[in-house]
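Progress narrative, work stream C.
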Amino acid sequence: MRKLLLSFVFQNDMALPPDLQSPESYVISLSPSPGISPSAFEELYTNPNFFIPPVLKARSSFDLASIAIIAAFLLLSVLSFLFIFHLRLQSRRMQHLQEFNSLWIVRLLLVTFAILWAVNEIIRLPNVRRTYLDPFLTLNQQTNLCKFHVVLSLGLYEPGFLITLLFLVNVSIKKKNPCRMWALLCVSMVCSPMTLIQTVLVYFAPLETQLPKFVHGSSILTIDFQGNKTVLCTYPFFGCVVFLVFAIVYALAFLISCWRVLDVVINKSIRVRINVLLAAIMVALPMQIICLGLSWLWLPEDDEYGCVVLVMFFCIVTCMVVGEVILIIKPITDALVAGCECCRRFLG
């Protein structure tokens, strides 16, 4: 007869309390099946491949899919970096490109937010953390890492990307571009409240003792059959509600900005780009909110949870890809082509 440990404990900012550190209260005894001899059961149980951690079984395929998507997205972001710096160099010797390149730092900030968000999502993946981070971290440190992930993802990187995106759309119809420092200050001031609110809700959860753990908890502690403890990251209810409010306000502001641009622009190609960008935002944000709501129905080690998070992750990546292509790669390509055409006419 073997005793197998099977339990999970919601965890926020502390390791297991002293009264839960003893596994006896969470132990169930499984006896061998009548059709299996004790020696066969003993051999089956001691096989290292028999009790595979459920996290690895449930999430490995989703983690691999997420890593593949992130790898492709990072390649596109690096390409966007190259386009920005190439235009920066070309604008020094082409006078007509200097005005277009005046906001190159803002475009650089847009790509930086996207890359940092992708790296933050890689750190969140259970298999990546189990392999490269968890062996060197205590349970408290793993829990703090999950808190840090929530604050950066829902409070800084994604809101920062969206706000920078909105700023570039608004600036596109202005006759004169603002100075670079003012643009960075504007983006920072709009992002700061969201980051501050998420930090307060995650690290200083109000009514923590009176409310259920899922309302303010950003992680969950799981214990597999072999007694291995793993801290998995979740999205707290409070943080998701704050992001929902931000998404509603942002969607309305972005919709109004796109309507203003469409009223001014007469180029058919640019109108198509704005419509595609608007559709990407209006689809990605509601899908993310729906997936965040559905994620509370399952534990992070369940297949359904992994599927929901993967769909949410894919929607956000698609939105960022559309933003980089439409606001960085395509405009820079058009500007460089126009610059080459002007040079040919001047030489002719």
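Work stream C, second folded protein:
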Amino acid sequence: MHRSVQVTNAVFLRTRLSRWVVSACWLACGFGVSSVAMAQGAANAKADQSTQVQTQFAPGVVTVIPPAPDPKETFDGPLTLQTMIDAHPEISWQTGNHPEGRPHFDPRSRTLEEMAKQVILRREIFCLEFSFKPLRQIYLDIPRPDGRLQRKLVHYMVYRVRYRGGDLRPAADNPNTPVYKRIESISYNTKRFFPMFVLEDHESGKKFTDQILPTAMQRIAIREQISTRLYNSVDISSIKIPRTEDDDSPGVWGVATWVDIDPNIDFLSVNVFGLTNAFEQDGEGADAPYRRKALMLNFYRPGDSMDQTADRVRFGVPAFDDPAEQAYVLKKYGLNERLDYRWVFR
């Protein structure tokens, strides 16, 4: 990476004001933010629905990502259930006195084999609200397999999940229609969160799944001044998250931790799985990979391998005045435009 290029200061400011307001204020004050950065900020403000708020149980500012269920995620199809067709050849009407597999009176489309080629699967979709504190680093003594302690740099992210209700499901007004045209909103008393956090290094292409570090929990809780219980990625799955409409509700707090991250990392993302049950699958079987919906949070770390705990990991994709540099950075994140976060299927 060319470190001589200066990143515009506007990308580093995180307030509850939208980026175009911040950029305009800086320009008015004479700080010289480019018109390119201002235009990018105005476009991103429309797509960015996140907010930043102060929290009581973990002093500091958290970034809140609102739930984003999509009505299109409530059904799949039409699909061909080829596995069922192959397992039950008797439904093909190739036996007896049925020429070309046709029934005597009903149309061919009424046979089980043909109906199994036009199946629409319906399901309910939920999505949790996700809030997080800045991604930080800390040196900790981590137990090794031989029982000894090894000092390592730990990347961690403290987060909060809340269930706001508003689940989506197809409304069965007419069960005989192939597609339910109306989507209704429902809510339950509680939901559970079965998380997996994957840190992605866009420089090397390596991915790191969060690790359970029992010895790190107390140190991180003290450093972040957490006044409620802090759960790891396993323990939090046993907690029922109550539905709430109160913006000041405490929610459930957890922490994700990673070790052995490249100290020279610059561009990285954290993929959060488990916030929703939405998924994609093209067909069925081994040739149709199952992709889960995840929240991708993009981060930027300007710094080097020296004194890493002093380096600030910034949320969002950095903005550059040079179009070539901006295109280079966007390519690293796999983006066409600057987005601090997005929902992806992986």
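Residues 51-70+124-315 form one domain. No further action is required on this item.
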